[in-house]
Amino acid sequence: MLSVSMGEEVPLEYGRLAAEELVAPEVVWHPSxxxxxxxxxxxxxxxxxxxxxxxxxxxxxxxxxxxERNADVGGTWLRNAYPGCGVDIPSHLYSLSFFPRxxxxxxxxxxxxxxxxxxxxDHFGLRDNIRFGTEALGAEYDESGxxxxxxxxxxxxxxxELAGDVLVTAVGLFNLQAAQISRQNEFTGTVVHSASxxxxxxxxxxxxxLVGTGASAMQIVPAIVDEVATLTVFQRSPGWVAPAENxxxxxxxxxxxxxxxxxxxxxxxxxxxxxxxxxRVYPSLQIDPGWVHLxxxxxxxxDAHRAYFTRYIRxxxxxxxxxxQALIPTYPPYGKRMLLDNGWYRALTRPHVDVVTxxxxxxxPTGLRTVSGTEYQAEIAVLCTGFAVARFLAPMQIxxxxxxxxHARWGxxxxxxxxxxxxRVFPICS
Length: 430
Fold this sequence. Notes:
Layout: H1 2-6, H2 15-23, E1 41-44, H3 48-60, E2 64-67, H4 76-79, H5 110-123, E3 130-131, E4 135-142, E5 147-153, E6 159-164, E7 166-169, E8 190-193, E9 207-211, H6 215-224, E10 230-234, E11 241-243, H7 253-261, H8 265-277, H9 300-316, H10 321-327, E12 339-341, H11 344-348, E13 353-356, E14 360-364, E15 367-370, E16 375-377, E17 380-383, E18 397-399, H12 406-410
Parallel strand pairs: 1-2, 1-7, 2-3, 4-18, 8-17, 9-10, 9-17, 10-13, 11-12
Antiparallel strand pairs: 4-5, 5-6, 14-15, 15-16
């Protein structure tokens, strides 16, 4: 059926996922848990993952508590409030199958996503088990009691301990990464990071410098380009960007009616999106050992994708060979996370927008200075320098058996895990 629905061949091994998505069975416990008979769970973080787990635990009657440093649920969607903030994957995929929503747009913005997570918490009655305004400082495994001891600090600075049989770190990967640009103290203007956007920041008729061209920058630039007097975008390296014709389109009334009235239509719609946005692309990621053009692509399929994306970029930047040269990547498509064009290229062609590919060396009193000594004037500097993904769980210190530190075990990079989420040295901790 999925092959018929997609109009192309879908591998048979996709059938099991399709069946589970369509039937959406309820969780069945064998045996059914009894109050007090199952271990207690401590969850750190009330974002999407933490809330989803808490909902299932509550359904099963398993004791749990969520430690959340912010004043509300939402995780990254609560903290990130920059202009244009939203998902860059379809809304119907960026949601939980057991809590569907009739989204207003194909790609929801931050406010609607935050409302969704708040509604989720209220629907499943999760708030009573969340300690808001409480930061997890660290955790240590108590071998004698076979439990985890989590040190926490509340809004008033009071520290205490929580004990639980199972520890789940649902903190995500989005720890703010400050840009290492020297002489920031000399800058007389305003410096903001995209992940800590101040409420009420006035951009109208201001000269703005924006450092970075990743996902956040790509949403901010089109959202502010009509307000600012000038906009200087500093790019370290370009990324591959795919067209997204329906990025700003609302969900049609016909589709929303079908979601509500036709059995399984919502599940089929979601399944089609899952195939299109995930597994369908997989062949273009695989390296062909016999492919001789590895300087530009990894296979014939990947090369065809490169040609398609390149044509699109050249069309969007028609008449601007300087921008075409600067914005078409040299590495193969999908070598880094793909981005979606939400008006990005056309915003960069505006007469009051400049793209600078020379590295930033330092701040100056009135702007930013590149390595050649060229100075670019700015009143506001926006740092879209990403997140410290490799510093997973920082600044928390987690110690397992014999006091072994988790970060020491991992080293400086991401956890060396592919299939496993649990370490023997760090029992029932994920």
